[in-house]
Amino acid sequence: MGIVDKIKGRLSSSSTAKRASTVSTPTPANPTSSPPANNATTYATEPVPEPDAPRSKSIETGSGARVTSYTGVCHCKHHEWTVDLTPDQSKHILCHCDTCKVLGGGAYTLNQIIPKSSLNITKGGEPSKYTYYGDSGKAVNCYYCSHCTTHLYHHQEVMGPDTIIARTALLKEGRDQFPVGAEIYGKAKMSWEPRIAETFETLPPE
């Protein structure tokens, strides 16, 4: 059983976060209402959406599976990309490993394991690559923006050529909406951190 299947199998019973996007339109002024005392003309205005605000889009694949396309943006906005996630994938996996602490500068990183074909870079071209070697002795390739050093995704060779680890904290629509599905590398977790979800010492067992 692969790493993706192991995590999906352990998390399949988790509830899927529901996402809804609404745009409110102000009610037009009543044309029969009395004008202001000073006879000044009033106008109804509508809020203008932020032009660069990414939006999620749900689509149905040929197999009938529903996926939602999320937009990712690096800090300097040089790189943009989309990530297609199923409901079961629309969760954060917290990684507490020491490498994530050093590379991310925090207590953990927010991730999801997905097929490589689910990520499509739409702006900025191919990112730069940094390689280190993990616990398995195999290479871990980190793809990042050469301008602001934001890590778009990682590829662990031990997972095979078609699986990557996407940074879900970079998906604006999912950053706050996704629930936490699991925590991995709990053995390196900070002593003061609370347990948020099912936690594995390293990765889920076979």
Gist of the model:
The chain is mainly beta and 206 residues long. The protein is 10% helix and 30% strand. It has a 7-stranded mixed beta sheet with strand order 7-8-9-10-5-4-11.
Tell me the Rg in angstroms: 21 Å
Run of helices and strands: HEEEEHEEEEEEHE
> What is the residue-averaged pLDDT?
81
> Sheet bearing the most strands, described?
7 strands, mixed
Structural class computed from helices and strand pairing: mainly beta
Our count of domains comes out at: 1
The residue ranges in which pLDDT falls below 50 over 5 or more consecutive positions are: 11-37, 39-54
Number of helices: 3
What is the general shape? globular
The helix content, as a percent range, equals under 10%
CATH class: Mainly Beta
End-to-end CA span: 7 Å
Major beta sheet, strand line-up: 7-8-9-10-5-4-11
Number of extended strands? 11
CATH architecture, by name, is Beta Complex
Stated plainly, the CATH topology is called: Metal Binding Protein, Guanine Nucleotide Exchange Factor, Chain A
Protein name: CENP-V/GFA domain-containing protein
InterPro entries: CENP-V/GFA (IPR006913), Mss4-like_sf (IPR011057)
Biased composition (Low complexity): 24-42
GO molecular function, one term: carbon-sulfur lyase activity
